[in-house]
Amino acid sequence: MSAICVQGLSAGYGGEAVINDINFELEQQQLLAVLGPSGSGKSTLLKTIAGFLTPIAGSITLDGNLVAGNNSPVPPEKRNIGLVPQEGALFPHLDVSANIDFGIKRDPHKKQRVNELLEIINMVEYAHARPQELSGGQQQRVALARALAPKPKLILLDEPFTALDTSLRAQMREDIRSILNLTSTTAIMVTHDQEEALATADQLAILQDGKLIAFGTPYALYHTPESIAVAQLLGEINLIPATVQTDRSVHSEFGETKTSSLERLVPGERGTLIMRPEAFVIENNVTPNATFIDSLFHGHDSLISVRMHSGQVIKLREQTHTTRVPGTLCAVTATQPGIFIRS
Amino acid sequence: MQNTDNAKAPSPLFWGAALCACIAAIPLVYLAIRIGGAGVSEILAILTRLRTWETVAISVGLAIVVVVACLLISYPTALFLTRTKIPLRRFWFTTVALPLAIPSYVAAYAWVALIPGMNGFWSASLILTAVSYPYVLLPLLVSLRSADVGLEHVARSLGKSPTAAFFATSFRQSIPAAAAGSLLVALYVLSDFGAVAILRVDAFTRVIYTSYRASFDRSNAAVLAGMLVILAVILISLERKARGRSLRFRSDKGVAARAVPKTLTPAMSAFSSLWFIALMVVTLGVPIVSLLIRLAEGTRRPLDWLELGSAVVNTAWISGVGAVIAVLLALPIAALSSQFRRKSSSAIESLSYSGLALPGVVIGLSLVFLSINTVPFLYQSFALLAFAYAVLFLPKSLGASRSALDAVPPAFGQVAQSLGYPRLRAWLYTSGRISLPGIAAGGLLAMLTAMKELPATLMLRPTGFDTLATELWSRTELAAFGSAAPFALALILLAAVPSFALSRGFLTNKKETMVTS
Fold first, then answer.
1. Domain residues for A255?
2. Number of structural domains, chain A?
3. Which residues of B touch A51 (CB under 8 A)?
4. Rounded mean pLDDT of A172-186?
5. Is residue A109 located within the same domain as residue A144?
6. Residues of A in contact with B413 (CB under 8 A)
7. Cα separations (Å) of A104 from A101, A107, A145, A266, A309?
8. Taking chain B, what is the end-to-end CA distance rounded to the nearest angstrom?
9. Chain B contacts in chain A segment 118-177 (CB below 8 A)
C-alpha cells in the first residue's frame, strides 16, 4: 500500500486554485522532494496535505485512509502527519525535551521515547537546552525529532535547509536522510534548490505554475526529462536543433546521435535535442569546429562556453582546467546521447 | 509555511471579535445618536455660534503652539543626544523621557500652586509642552539613532558639506517620525482636560465639561464632542500615514553605519549643559519642587491617611477592573486580526480602536447620556466607570496583545496541530502561551493609564467614590494646594511606572526575540 496517494488535487485560497490537478503516489519509507521555483505552489501543496487547507477538488489518501476529498476532511490534528516548518519553529518557551514530548504528552513511555529520539538526533546532552542556545542545524534536528515523536505516518519538511549556511547544508542533508532511514519514515520535502533535491530524494516531483510537470526518480528526471522545462530546472542544458533520422537516432550538427527518448520517433521530424554539459568533450588534435569563449572554474570541474562555427553556443564541462585564450579554436564532440523533444 | 493568509476564520472567533468591537463602539455610536437627536436646526444653531468657533480656534491654536514648541525642543535635544559627546550623555538620555510621567493636571496644579495667578492660553501651552514633548523626542531619537549614516557618507562623497549631507539624508528620514510624534502631541492636547480646566482655557474639553455641568445645554456638549471626535479622527489617520512612512524608511537588511558622536567645543559643551538643565528645571524641577513645598506646608495640617489610602485602593481597584475588561475585549479581536488578514477582520480591528478618537470627556459624556436615557440603574455606577476605562484604554491593550501575538510565527500553531492538538488548544499552548507576557503587560499599561484618568472619572464615578485624580481635582478647585500635594505625588509615582517602561522600550528599541533564530 502506498504511504500517500494524491489524486486530481486542486487547492488554493478563497476559491482560487494555486495548485491544479496534482497526481502522485509515494511508497512507504521513501523521501519525496518537491522542487519548484517560488510561487509554484509547493507550500500550498504541503499545507493541503497537512490539512491546513481544504482541497477545491481531488483527494488525499494516507495509508489507505481518505483524509481529504470527501465532505468531512480529517483535521490536521487527526492526520498523524509530522510537520517541520522552515527554520524549525521550536517553541521558544520550552526546552529541547519539552519540545520533543509536546506531541506525546499522554504517552506513558514518553521519557523513553524522548531519550531514544535525542540519541537518534545525537543531541542527548542538549535535553534541557533552550532553543535560543542551539545552532540552526541543531534546531532543525530537534524540530525533526519533535515531529517524529508521535510516530507519524508521514513527515512534511518545508525548505528544511534554507536557513543554514552552505557549509552546514550538506551535513544536514545527510543527517536528515539517515534519521529518516533509521526511523523508517516516509517524508515529503519542499525545496527550491535542485542540487539539494537531486542529492536527497528517492523520488522527485517538479512543480511549475501549480502543475506537476514531472514525477520520478532524480536519476530518471535528470537524464530523461519529459520537457525542456524539467531539464532546465534540474541543471545546465544545451538546446540543439535536430532532425529525426531513424526511430532511434537523430541528426544534428554533432552528427548522428542516439537518443534515449521514450517516445516513438518518426524519421524526418524536426525538434530539439537536450544535452547536458557533461555530454561533450573538447578535443585538441581534431579539425576545429568551434571557438573558445569563456571558462568558469567550479573547483571539481569547469563550465566552458564555446561557439560552434554554426553560431550555436555550447556549454560543456571539463574536469581538467586548461587555460585558453578567448578566440582559440577547438573541437567539440558529443559523447552521450541527448533527449529529443518534438517541436 | 506562511500564515493562514486568506483562510476563513472559525465563526465563533469571528463573531466573538465582532461582538467585542461593537461593545467598544457603544460610546461612539451613542454619541452620534445623541447628536442626531438634537435636530438639524439646533445643530446648525450651535455650529453658527461664534463661541463654538472660538473654541475650535483655541483648541487648534493650542495644539499648533504646543506641537511647534515640542519640535523646537526635540530636534536640538535629539541631535545633542545622538550626534555629540555632551557631558553626562547617559544621564540625560534617561531623564529626558521622565516628564511623560507627570499627568498634565498634576503639572498644572504644581505650577498654579507655585504661581497662584497663573492661567490662560500661554500658561497652558507651556505646561502641555513640558509634559508632552517626549512624544516627539522619543521617536525622533529612535529615528536619528537608527538612521544609516552610510547615506550621509555617500552624500558627503558626492560633494555635500556635513550639514547639507545631514539635511539631505538623516533629517529627511526623521521627518515621518517627527510628524507622527507631533500628531500624537496634537491629539494629547486636544484630549487633555485637566490642564486646560485648571488654567481656565476654554478649549473643547473644558467647554464640553462646563456645558454638561450647566446641564441646561447638553446638546451643545454633544455637538462639540462630535466635532472633537472628528478632529481626533483626522489626527489619528494622519498619524497612521506618517508612521507608515517612517517604517518604510527602515530597512533591516545589512548593517547600518552608526554615527560617531562628535566632540563639542567647550562653548558648545557649556551651552548643551545649560540647555538640558533648563529643560529639566522647567519640565521636572518646577513641578517637583512645588509639590515638595506644598507637601511640607500641608503637613502642618494632619494628612488624612485614611482618605489617601482609600483613594489609592479605589484607584487601583476600578482601574484594575477596567483593564481586565479591556484585555478580555481585546483578546478575541487580537487573535482574529493577527491570524486572519481579511478586510472584515481589519474593519473589526479599526472599530475597536475608536477609544483613541474619544477623549475621556467625550466617553464620559456619551455614557452619561446613555445611562440616563436607557439604563438609569447604571448611571454613576462602578460598572459603567469600569466600562468607560475599558473602552478608553482598549487600544493600549489591543496594541500590546496584537504585537505580542504577531511576533509568534503561525508555524507554531500549525506544528502543535500536526502533533495532535485541536485548533483552539493548539493556539492556547503556543501563540497564547508565548504572547502571555505581552498581553499581561498591555493590561498593566492600560491599568496604570486608567489610574490617571480624570474627566471620565469625574463624570461617571459613583457618589462618594474618590480616586487619586478626583481627590486632587476637588482640592485644586478649592485652592487647597497643600492638602492636594500627597495625592499629586502618589499620582506621579504611579504614572512613572508605565512611562519608564515606555521610554525603555523606545530607547533600547529591542525586538522581542520570539522567533528562535
1. 236-342
2. 2
3. 417-418
4. 88
5. yes
6. none
7. 5, 5, 12, 60, 67
8. 16
9. 131-132, 134, 139, 143, 146-147, 149-150, 152, 156, 158
A81 touches chain B (CB under 8 A): yes
Q: Is B427 on the interface with A (CB under 8 A)?
A: no
Do A8 and A147 fall within a single domain? yes
Last residue of a domain, one of A232, A266, A293: A232
CB-nearest partner of B434 from A92, A132, A139 = A92
Burial of A249 (0-12, 13-18, 19+ CB in 10 A): middle
Q: Is A88 part of the contact surface with chain B (CB cutoff 8 Å)?
A: yes
Is B504 a residue whose pLDDT tops 60? no
Interchain CB distance below 8 Å, B420 and A77: yes
Runs of H (alpha helix) within B249-375: 266-280, 286-298, 305-339, 343-352, 354-357, 360-373
Query: Does A95 reach chain B within 8 Å, measured CB to CB?
Result: no
Give the homologous superfamily in CATH for domain B49-252+259-284.
MetI-like (1.10.3720.10)
B185-213 pLDDT per residue, tens? 999 999 999 999 999 999 999 999 988 88
Q: Looking at the partner chain, which of B1, B5, B416 has a beta carbon nearest the beta carbon of A102?
A: B416
**Facing A131 at nearest CB: one of B4, B419, B516:** B516
Residues A168 and A262 in one domain: no
Give the Cα-Cα-Cα angle A299, A222, A165 (nearest 5 degrees): 45
Q: Do B6 and A13 touch (CB under 8 A)?
A: yes
Grid-cell match 445643530, residue found: B43
Please say if the pLDDT value at position B302 is more than 80.
no
Check residue B391 and give its pLDDT.
Answer: 92
pLDDT(B2) > 50: no
Q: Do residue A165 and residue A305 come from a single domain?
A: no
- Please say if the pLDDT value at position B246 is more than 70: no
pLDDT, position B5: 45
Contacts of B190 (CB under 8 A, 6+ apart): B59, B63, B203, B204, B205, B228, B231, B232, B235, B359
Whether residue A19 is found in the same domain as residue A168: yes
Residue matched to cell numbers 454638561:
B212
Instruction: Report the distance separating Cα B487 and Cα B496, nearest Å.
Output: 14
Residues A174 and A278 grouped into a single domain: no
CATH number, domain of A324, equals 2.40.50.140
In CATH terms, B1-29+293-510 corresponds, of 2.40.50.140, 3.90.930.12, 1.10.300.10, 1.10.3720.10, to: 1.10.3720.10
Which value does ipTM take for this structure? Answer: 0.79
Of A232, A264, A295, which residue sits at a domain end?
A232
Least confident of A122-131, B107-116, B276-285, B347-356: B347-356
Neighboring chain B residues of A74 at a CB cutoff of 8 Å? none
Cα of B208 to nearest chain A Cα, Å: 48
Q: How close is the nearest chain B Cα to the Cα of A2, in Å?
A: 21
Q: What is the mean pLDDT of residues B362-374?
A: 89
